[in-house]
Amino acid sequence: MPWDTILTWTFFIALVTAGIRLAIPVMLATLGEVVTERSGVVNLGLEGVMISGGLAGFLTAYTVENSALGQAVPWAGTWLGIFAGILGGMAMGLVLALLCVTLKADQVVSGVTLVLLGVGMTSYLYRQRFSSLTARVSGLEPWPVPGLSRIPVIGEILFNHDVLTYISFILVAVVWFFLYRKTWGQQIRAVGEHPAAAETSGVNVSQARYIAILIGTGLAGLGGAVLTVAQLSLFREGITAGKGWIAVALVIFARWRPELALLGALLFGLADSLQYRIQALDTAQLGARAIPYEFLLMLPYFLTLAVLLTRVRKTDTPAALGRPYVKGKR
Amino acid sequence: MNTIPERRAARPIEIGKWLRPAAPALGVIAALIVGTGLLMLAKVDPVMAYGVMIKGAFGGPRQIQETILKAVPLVLVALGLSVALHGRQWNIGGEGQYFIGALFGTLVAVTFTNWPAILLIPATLLAAMVGGGLWAAIPAYLKVRRGMNEIISTLMLNYIGVLLVEYLVRGPLQDPESFLPESAQFVQAARMPAVVGRLHLGVLLALLLAPLVYLLIWRTPIGFRLRAVGSQSKVARTAGIDPAWSIAFALIFSGALSGLAGIIEVSYLHTRLKGASISGGYGFSGILVALISRLNPFAVLLVAVFFAALTIGMDAMHSLAKVPATLADALQALVVLFVLAAEAIARRGEQ
Fold first, then answer.
1. Do the Cβ atoms of A116 and B329 come within 8 Å?
2. Tens digit of each residue's pLDDT (9 = 90 or more) over A275-300
């Protein structure tokens, strides 16, 4: 191992900075799923929601950037794309809400189907538009925060990101505030714990769950769009590569709490970042002895399994999770 | 406590009676309507397109054979899942089990090259079932011993399994004479023999397994215990059934059948182990087939042929009209979505 290359500040700073960046899409999806599951609905379709947001965002950004508007306002494509990503995610959320809340269909079946629908549909729509070409959008440049980004190490790690990364961190605080300090948030949590009691005290259970699903899928769609529009500047079939599923696992790891969702996602971002760095090091310095890249790519999936080994107390889980609410039935 | 809302009470009871059995047909029709919209988006005449599809899938003996062959892996995966889902065990790791099954089968096929077909074929099939079963035994262990949700663990193992096979076919298992990431070619004695025309032994196996799986679910103690566990009622506990064995059986059995699907595809169609290209997403489509079939093994045969026809027909349309063939995947998911909705509406009508 080339320890002298690894044990330097430059390497460390690059590793953590990239880790934060890679954590953002998963973090947004996890945050969204925390809200959804707190209302008692488990959205297993997150992977399909994310990739739908990713494609909606990418197609919008690409179309705008190649239009008169995009020529006149260079940033319009990126930001309209991000907005479209949120809407794309919510559109999938609406399908889920119709099935699981209005029609009270099985949440697991609905979720799994939603994933396959999202993956199949995005693949069709992308190929239909671009056939086998790889289209690109301009992406989002980092915006170092003036002053703060100059602080040694910490500033370099925390304040050298694109604007969406900062926004994502703020969103964690917003969701926390919303869930714990606002009546709306309390209602959502009540509905997830004891829908019948919530209903008795005047909360509209279906409405609360619709809102929670739309917020959750909006955030997951945003995560997908951040990935395609801002970070990678392209779309590929299956581009989310299990990030939606990882987010579902992280919600359990995070004990359904937004602040811990942030922590879990950062852990994943770091592992992913480390994996990329080792790949780069390997080929450059170890040559033939390189660790096969397939094994490095397995890392996030192994980490997900490891994370799920942590014990969850029953009281952390929203009591009504996964159960449709039928009025007058207990 | 039972305050039945007036709105639901006023709903005519008959709705549910006819809607529920008709749900699959309605789902297919609704999905095809949405599909028509998607085709028009690609500026394709839908009447022509569906014509090409039907001809591509059923237009002649060759097409029908292709469709049946395509249905085989779907049948196997879905039969396994019918068993697992009767016990409410969500094995969505069929894709990974398919790859590991293909891998284990390949190891046998490329090692014992001098064995006669009568020994070698059963050995590869058995090895594949062991491989798929072992890959599913991991989530089974994690669920029984550590209480880990099988949905996420089986799904994660998909990615790990595919990556493992991708590494092996460009590493230790690579054919020294090939520049491509693929294993050595199977000897003739290791390949699925054709029985009628292009139809191979796997077709017979799939047909044979459907009634066997039916018997397993409805006529054996294993099936009874599985259904008791799946019903999530207190029946299982009252009857003294240890759910651990049923959970493990459900996952491992469905894993073994996915593994079998993997080796059959590899040994007949590809004649060697390759990377991601050896599966057409059967591990996932198989879930949809099992769901639409309502976990009925005989319905699985029918639905699998329908799904296979969609895929084969879409391939035909792709070569003719440049419509992306992945429309088949989207349509399959749409069918399930609409069936789900129709059934849920029917249930509400019955209440």
1. yes
2. 888 887 766 666 555 788 899 999 99
Q: Which CATH class is domain A3-131+145-316?
A: mainly alpha
Please give the structure tokens belonging to residue B231: 């019903």
Q: How far is CA B45 from the centre of its chain?
A: 31
User: Which of B156, B171, B348 faces A103 most closely, judged by CB atoms?
Assistant: B348
Q: B326–A298: do the CB atoms touch at under 8 Å?
A: no
pLDDT for res A288 = 54
- B101 and B123 Cβ atoms separated by less than 8 Å: no
Contact B156 A292 (CB under 8 A): no
CB B343 within 8 Å of CB A105: yes
Q: Which residues contact A90 (CB under 8 A, 6 or more apart)?
A: A214, A217, A218, A221
Residue A56 has a pLDDT of 97
- From the list B5, B153, B171, the residue facing A292 with the nearest CB is B171
CA angle B274, B279, B280 (to 5 degrees): 140
Give the domain ranges of chain B: 15-42+326-351, 74-323
Q: Say yes or no to pLDDT of B15 above 80.
A: no
B308-326 per-position pLDDT tens digit = 999 999 888 888 777 888 8
In this prediction, residue B12 carries a pLDDT of: 45
Dist. CA B91–CA B93, nearest whole Å: 5
- Of B307, B27, B246, B304, nearest in space to A105 by CA: B27
For residue A108, give the nearest of B90, B326, B327 by CB distance.
Answer: B90
Kindly report, residue by residue over A20-54, the tens digit of the pLDDT: 999 999 999 999 999 999 999 999 999 999 999 99
Could you tell me which chain B residue has the CA closest to the CA of A113?
Answer: B333
Whole-complex ipTM: 0.90
Tokens of B139: 């989530």
CATH number for B74-323: choose from 1.10.760, 2.160.20, 1.10.3470, 1.20.120: 1.10.3470
* DSSP per-residue string spanning A232-282: ISS--TTTTTTHHHHHHHHHHHTTT-HHHHHHHHHHHHHHHHHHHHHHHHI
Query: Residue B50 — very low, low, confident or very high, per pLDDT cuts 50/70/90?
Result: confident
CA-nearest of A312, A87, A30 to A214 is A87
Beta bridge partners, B183, equal: B174
Q: Are strands B199-200 and B194-196 parallel, antiparallel or unpaired?
A: antiparallel
- The per-residue pLDDT for range B158-193, each reduced to its tens digit, is 999 999 999 999 999 999 888 899 999 999 999 999
Spatial distance between the Cα atoms of A160 and A243, rounded to a whole number of angstroms: 24
The model's confidence at residue B2, banded by pLDDT at 50, 70 and 90, is very low
Residues of chain A contacting residue B346, judged by C-beta atoms under 8 Å apart: none
Instruction: Give the closest-approach CA distance of B43 to chain A in angstroms.
Output: 10
**Amino acid of residue A23:** A
**Entry pTM:** 0.91
**Per the CB < 8 Å rule, is B153 touching A308?**
yes
CB atoms within 10 A of CB A154: 12
Q: B43, B155, B323: which to substitute to probe chain A, counting the most A Cβ within 10 Å?
A: B155
Q: What does the pLDDT look like over A195-244, one tens digit per residue?
A: 999 988 889 999 999 999 999 999 999 999 999 999 999 999 889 999 99
**How far, rounded to the nearest angstrom, does the alpha carbon of residue B99 sit from its chain's CA centroid?**
13
Q: Which of A113, A116, A128 sits opposite B340 (nearest CB)?
A: A113
* Whether B332 and A242 lie within 8 Å, measured CB to CB: no
- B215 min Cα distance to partner chain A (Å): 25
